[in-house]
Amino acid sequence: MQAIVLVGGFGTRLRPLTRNVPKQMLPVVDRPMIEHVVAHLAGHGITRVVLSLGFHPEAFADAYPDGTCAGIPLHYAVEPEPLDTAGAVRFAAAKAGLGDGDDAFLVLNGDVLTDLDVGDVVAHHRAAGTEGTLALTEVDDPSQYGVVPTDQDGKVLGFVEKPEAATAPTRWINAGTYVLEPTVLARIPENRSVSIEREVFPAMAVEGRLHAVASEAYWIDTGTPEAYIRAQLDLVDGTRGDLAAVHPEARVHPDARIDRSVVMSGAAVGEGACLCGAVVMEGGSVGASATVDHSVVGPGAQVGPGASLRALTIIGEGQNVSDGRCLSGARIPEDA
Ligand code: GDD
Ligand code: MG
Question: What pTM, to 2 d.p., does this model score?
């Protein structure tokens, strides 16, 4: 089976980290996010991946010059302008010849990290004989997602993208993995931006042509600072994996305190510094006695001695935080 992976968004909620870098090229512990996504697909028998690109497409081609990622051949479909999620699918499918035959294909939101059993979603799709099948996951606050009520047989009864929290009919939400028949492509108007969540899926639900499969597998959408940090902590603290939290090429002073944090290659942490729920990206540095609490130090950024970053502060690439400065919930630079 082939997959289209949507990676063309602007990653606005992760700025300034995404000012010049697509969200899916940001590192997640030890590799760019897209490599985690493609490796998961490879593990489920997907043989070819079409990356649906828009914002900084060159970042992907530069990172995978031989055209393979996690052992799978990549194909690139670069939109001339953002076409939104359904427009992007139509465009990428046409570029890669995906709708030419009768074969169903997968579509994924490229910012989701999950252990979802993709084969199980495909099997449900075939058994239901339907036009599209979504994976669902359960969340505490559905208001940030596509909310998907179903009947007992898994038929989708409606699709409400980002409803007011109090009005959400269920806590089961669109997990961003779809199996689609090629006929879905003809439902997407050409040459304009079209949202799969706001136009295509609601219309398919009305016709009873959309099914869903609930999954309890690990799932996270990495698109906010909180989730970008949590996805990485989950990979080092045993929740989802046991990757090394501190890269062997990082320099951490023996008297620094590192509590549930990730320190990437070439980063440095000084004497008496305290990291808790922190991510220090490649070449970032945290000065002596500084504190980084549930915050991110961007690539090559420098946090001065005694400074304190808290409450989802994000320091952009190459930025400096002066000695002793206290930041809470801040983005540096502020205008990124
Ligand atoms: N090629 C392309 N073109 N890709 C796009 C575009 C576009 O115009 N717009 C967004 N994308 C990509 C993003 O890069 C991301 O990988 C994916 O599409 C989803 O966009 P997000 O901006 O991350 O959407 P979201 O997180 O608010 O909501 C979506 O994901 C939720 C689950 O993670 C929706 O699909 C929700 O219904 C869903 O619950
Ligand atoms: Mg997202």
Answer: 0.96
